[in-house]
TrEMBL record:
Chief place where the protein resides: cytoplasm
Gene Ontology MF term list: ATP binding; ATP hydrolysis activity; ATP-dependent protein folding chaperone; unfolded protein binding
Record's compositionally biased regions (Acidic residues): 227-237
Official protein name in the record: Chaperone protein HtpG
A: annotated span: 1-358
Gene3D superfamilies: 3.30.230.80, 3.40.50.11260, Heat shock protein 90, C-terminal domain (1.20.120.790), Histidine kinase-like ATPase, C-terminal domain (3.30.565.10)
Organism, scientific name: Williamsia herbipolensis
Residues annotated as binding ATP: E35, N39, D81, M86, S101, G102, Q125, F126, G127, I128, G129, F130, T175, R358
Purpose: Molecular chaperone. Has ATPase activity.
Amino acid sequence: MSTPVEEREFQAETRQLLDLMVHSVYSNKDSFLRELVSNASDALDKLRLQAFQDKDLEVDTSDLHITIERDTEARTLTIRDNGIGMSRDDVVGLIGTLARSGTAELRKKLADAQDSAASVDLIGQFGIGFYSTFMVADTVTLLTRKAGESEGTRWRSTGEGTYTIETVPDAPQGTSVILELKPTDTDDHLYDYTSESKIRELVKRYSDFIAWPIRMDVERTEKVEPEGSDDTDDTAEPTERTVVTTETLNSMKALWARSKDEVTDEEYTEFYRHVSHGWDEPLETISLKAEGTFEYQALLFIPSQAPFDLFMRERAGGIHLYVKRVFIMDDCEELMPEYLRFVKGVVDAADLSLNVSREILQQDRQIRAIRRRLTKKVLSTISDIKSSRPDDYDTLWAEFGRALKEGLLSDQDNRDALLKISSFASTNDPEKLTGLEDYVSRMKSGQSEIYYITGETRQAMENSPHMEAFRAKGIEVLLLGDPVDEMWVGSIPEFDGKPLRSIAKGEVDLDDDAGKSEDEKKEAEAEKAERDKAFADLTAWLTTTLDENVKETRLSTRLTDSPACLVGDTFSFSPQMEKLYRASGQILPPSKRILELNPDHPLVVALQQARAEKGDDQSLVDTAHLLYGMAVIAEGSELTDPAKFAKLLADRLAQTV
Ligand SMILES: Nc1ncnc2c1ncn2[C@@H]1O[C@H](COP(=O)(O)OP(=O)(O)OP(=O)(O)O)[C@@H](O)[C@H]1O
């Protein structure tokens, strides 16, 4: 039964996106066909799988295919499939709104995009699938019926604010998208999409590998022998007639089953776009074939651009699983560790059941073996890119480094490989990142540890008091500024036999004892003991006075300019780590740290003298709290009671002006 035609409005952000399409400045308008064929192919995959899993579903899957129909007179192009189809609710949810995760992100980015060129970049990042039809069509009609349902849905829009939707009784199962084409305008990259040769070219270029036949009616001229002609009459000329035949335009060859030298870069790129729903180019293509106990083929891609949802909980998956060319699922998490979630592609395993479920996959020995091998292969490929294509490596690291570093925490087996392909900011260069091997090659003679500091910004880390002695002595320090760095760095003891050491924890000894004689060493020790003794009263008094926050006070060897700094025990949490834990809702007991004093700083020297003269005077107690507060602020941490600190400071300044 038909329902009345209902007119609805697009969501605001959908309208904005459509507006971008209708008035598109995106030059590759041809790609609408790839998007529609890709959707149709997905719909056929889904139907085949559903029919296999649900024996009660009454559908004919004997001739699943895609048809392209051209009408040169009416200037329409129709892309039809007999796949899974959509219910009315599906149409409203999937086509009428931007229902996918990331909508908020897209909306924000569209609002931020200053000009149309910037918006076009967003197309590459988000992929806009079905809406790309409005680049080439004035009006788009979608007629669809879901497998197993009796009624269909017709949706129609000009892409300008509203669409109409109605229930129709007579839609064939599957989906047809009918495009009423804009006039041809080659200057605007709008070609004649009713032309046989154009469609042929586009299918070949974008969709040749699609596993389902893409059929189109084509006209052929045939010679016809004149009627009544026989062998004796050779004067009669043969005439010609036009016949219409249906041709399959694509080769349907699974790209992953072909050897790398048989496939062009362009074909790989199009396949990558099909599996990733991306519009960018792959940075690297990895083709892999395993024979023997577990037979499988894999075709993997490292993208050149991170998807917007790389760090979102609900993100689009990466690896499609096939079993002997039959599509099984499009997000097979079991085949790739979480930290390599940006890798896209296909794995076609020979020995799995078509009925395989997620639960089975999680237990499956073969899947685990494939995952191990794929992980190693991706990491070794990144390592190759790092050594042979530094610019590509820089892109890769900028896009995916944060995700890769999660592996340092979660993937013990590949930790060394991951450390080797990782890069970090360092005091060695204001911009260029460094690898650990390079750091080690620059280590000073006598330096046995790899030094690092963690913090929220490069500036805060570089200006932290902990850095002073390292700067003065020209010792390189890695600047680890990602929240994920806090997580892994404490769990990795060393690289290449060199311990990783936080400059904000434990005691540091930067004095190079190697060149000293025994006598010189003894002399230095005696000097230190004497200084400790001279400041013993002050350090003990500060520990008691600041008891709430400080567990020990000692003289520092890491300060040159600041009066004091705070350090943790070697295995304690850093303040940033505590903040992360607290932000994630964990309850941590308040932690106390060690206050280190710079015995050469005038403030510390004056405080020591004042202590000797005034004892427990309240003004000295205030100075102690100010000293502690300054140390907290200088390392970039937050004061627990900033108002109290500000008041102490104001009172003190009032006495000096
Ligand atoms: N031919 C079709 N048959 C069945 N469902 C379809 C068809 N075309 C689109 N859909 C449904 O509509 C959804 C939205 O399609 P759309 O092309 O906008 O985005 P997408 O394919 O999910 O992703 P992308 O935007 O990255 O291409 C699809 O995910 C699918 O569920």
